[in-house]
């Protein structure tokens, strides 16, 4: 994966964390956000020489793989033409509300995030309709230090959406009792990560029961 370029659209918590880890693993990163390439310039300088700033269109066009790490409400502003035919990693949570839907991009979209074989290696659920694209993403995650658990087709990505056993808690542990929704989000962002091995992720995926989309406490 040393010759791979990862395009990242979004410089929030997920985009920045993946960018840092990718550069540390020897992957070239093209980092972008909606505010222009000058805004992540300081971050790019800090991350290192394998990273550079660009526009979302440039990140999409340049990346061998593209991480669309944007808020759900911003999905319609993704550069669809530049993403056409690309393998797109989608970490967004699909929270349905009246009048809201997401048209499929013309791309190979997939849902996903120690050395290989380590007992405490964390696994990330992955789903998608293109086997080759899934292999590319699994290879990238392996370089970044994660195993993957294949949930199947993209239609099975609900197994890791909010309110399923796979959402957040396997990676951060049990939250304090009595938290409101807002307090829970803050707690998750500050919690220390815990290992979530592949066997546990498979068990939790199998135990998932489909319900209404969207986050609820």
Would you write up a description of this structure?
The chain has 217 residues and is an alpha/beta fold. It has 2 domains: 1-92, NAD(P)-binding Rossmann-like Domain (Rossmann fold), CATH 3.40.50; 102-209, no CATH class. Helices cover 31% and strands 17% of the residues. The protein has helices at 13-24, 41-47, 56-62, 80-83, 131-144, 169-172, 181-190, 198-207; strands at 5-9, 28-32, 51-53, 65-68, 87-90, 108-111, 123-128, 147-152. The chain has an 8-stranded mixed sheet with strand order 3-2-1-4-5-6-7-8, with helices on both faces. Helix 1 (13-24) links the parallel strand 1 and strand 2. The chain starts with a strand and ends in a 10-residue tail after the last helix.
